[in-house]
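hey so i finally got around to running the thing on that chain from the lab meeting. sorry it took forever, my laptop kept dying and i had to restart like 3 times. anyway pasting the input first so we r on the same page abt which one it is
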Amino acid sequence: MPRLVLVALLLALASSADLHAGLDKSFTSVDPVITPPWNASLSTGWDSLYMFRGTNQLPGYKGYGSSISWTSLTLTANLTPADSVSIGSWAAFGLGESDYKEIDGTATYTHTIGNLSLSFGYALYAVLNQTNGLYAHELNATAAYELALGPVTLTPAIQYAFNLGPAPGHRGYVEQCSSYLDLRLDANVPLVTDRLALAPWIATGFNFRYNTSEKSDPPSPFVGANHVETGLSLPLTLTAAATLTPYVAGSYQWNQLAGTRPATFWGGVAVTLSF
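ok and heres what got predicted. didnt touch it at all, straight out
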């Protein structure tokens, strides 16, 4: 009997210890942040000019440039809470008297370290309205850091893009082995309501034979500062999944880039659906 009592007492103590351990865990546990396995965004928009890396891509229409409509789709696989892979497509069509058609494809890997994000990507640019088509293959790397100052968010970013080719004359439209460096600062300032914000930005670019200057005869790729750009967008949250974003922007360049006016102003609007 004493042995049976001793065994029963030990079992009771063990059960009590397990119960207390369970209670302690229930009070100290924290629900983990669940990262969805994938997400997607679908956007469509209109731009009064097709501005890309400081140059007006369609400068001939009425002496200023043609507007474009565009649609983009991005699918993102979240591999870990800090790692993701995105596949995207972008299609643009010239409006007015322009028959411009372009379809791009991108693949990007992103790794985050706290507020710092590092991205490495590939892009294919294909212009379809030219004879036999023109295209360019590009590798790029981007670093961005998100800094919170009260309700305001500042995001400085730097991107370097390297064009793999092909060369002009071999269905390429950008100098082979040229590159482009872009420095940008974005801000987000919430207004009275959380549904509307001011999102200004400023950017500048540096050419390494990427854009063509008309200062030389004949026009040729050049190395040097490219342009200064600033703009303001007003992202408006329509629903939990839909955002409307109108914007205005201006750019100044001083190297007679590919028919682009020294001072250029444009604007547009986009609608984005997130899933």
